[in-house]
Amino acid sequence: MIRTSFAFQTDNILHGTAFGQETLVRIGFMNPTPTPKPIPMELESTSPYGVSWDKKRTVKMVATSWLSKYWVIWLVIAFIVFETTSQPALAAMFACVKVGWDDFSLARWLFRIDPHRRGAVLRSAVFVAWGFGKIALTATLVMAATIVVMDMLRWAGQPWLQLIRALWGALVALGIGLTISGLVTLYAVLWAWLLGQKLYVGKAVSLAREGNYWPPVETEARWSLFERGGNRVSWLLALTWLLTLGFGGAYLQTKFVQQFPNRILVRQKASPWILALAGGTILGYFYLGRKVIATRPEECWALPDWVDSLHPLDGDPDRMDDNSLEVDTYLEGNQMPSKAKAYPPSLS
């Protein structure tokens, strides 16, 4: 269990520990007028994880950006590998992997920042699954483009066989991306269902990272057949269902081929089982989706309840007296266990 303690004072300075780090945070109240994006607050911290709260239940967190230098290193390594090996297959694989790199970095950032440790692993895992899903999609596009170029070169009488290696590289990236994406999604969804957690993959997390604030807030509300409130976990569930149906159907087909040599008889015996597999899995994934897919980011990341109970009070910040507000709350589920003795900041 994580225990976090804070001491609020009327001089708007917060001293305490957060996530095992010593922090010094300046507290202030924001204009209650709704704004599309949280306004940055004045904040000081001795660690990269400083936190502060406002009246709109928005937490601000300082986190250093580390993505840019890794992009440069990645491009340099990709160029060196291609120049030294002259392998189109490696070039195709690098092109596919680079597309999912930003989602992998978001998963790492979310795992480090999310204070709800029980759900941090699962919510960062779905970003990993989304990154591998994008790798598989990019590999499919690379394969289609390679086949078109090969056909054009063949009709023009130009050498085209060397592009087969690029096709194999994209095929390997496709297989790895689909397999890992499906397995990680299934792992995250099942554990989220068992633990009562919600999952979210969307633009709100990347905007929170770029804007240096926490938690992620809803940026737009939209509803479609495949996307609930901008959440792409439903796409991952659809991909996992297709993989389950494909692997399950192939297994049933192989099993019946071994028992019945006649192809017509195999189809007659295997078809009801494949239809039952398709119907059962789609109902199961639909049920899981209703349980674990968050309609907005606030369902995954919320402030502790005791933040709402802090009100402006008059009192001496140097001593604890009747004007102090004592909160001793141990929260379950998505809420962070906490204990606070507070002198809330004054509005004056």
Key traits:
2 domains; alpha+beta; five-stranded mixed β-sheet; disordered N terminus; two-stranded antiparallel sheet; 7 helices; 348 residues
How would you describe this protein?
This protein is of the alpha+beta class. Helix content is 53%, strand content 9%. The strands form 2 sheets. Strands 3-2-1-7-6 form a 5-stranded mixed beta sheet, with no helix packed on it. Strands 4-5 form a two-stranded antiparallel ribbon. The chain is flat. The two termini are 37 Å apart. The relative contact order is 0.13. The model is unreliable at 1-67, 220-228 and 306-348 (pLDDT under 50).
Topology:
Elements: E1 4-8, E2 13-18, E3 21-26, E4 51-53, E5 59-61, H1 67-85, H2 88-113, H3 117-155, H4 163-195, H5 203-211, H6 233-259, H7 263-292, E6 325-329, E7 338-342
Helix pairs in contact: 1-2, 2-3, 2-4, 3-4, 4-6, 4-7, 6-7
Radius of gyration: 26 Å
- Compute the number of strand runs: 7
N-to-C CA distance: 37 Å
- Tell me the number of helical segments per DSSP (H or I, 4 or more residues long): 7
What letter string, H or E per element, gives the SSE order?
EEEEEHHHHHHHEE
Query: Which percent range fits the helix content?
Result: 40-55%
Unreliable runs: 1-67, 220-228, 306-348
| Tally of distinct domains | 2
Beta fraction:
5-15%
Q: Biggest sheet, open or closed, and with what strands and sense? A: 5 strands, mixed
In the sheet with the most strands, the strands line up as: 3-2-1-7-6
Structural class: alpha+beta
- Average pLDDT, all residues: 64
| Rough outline | flat
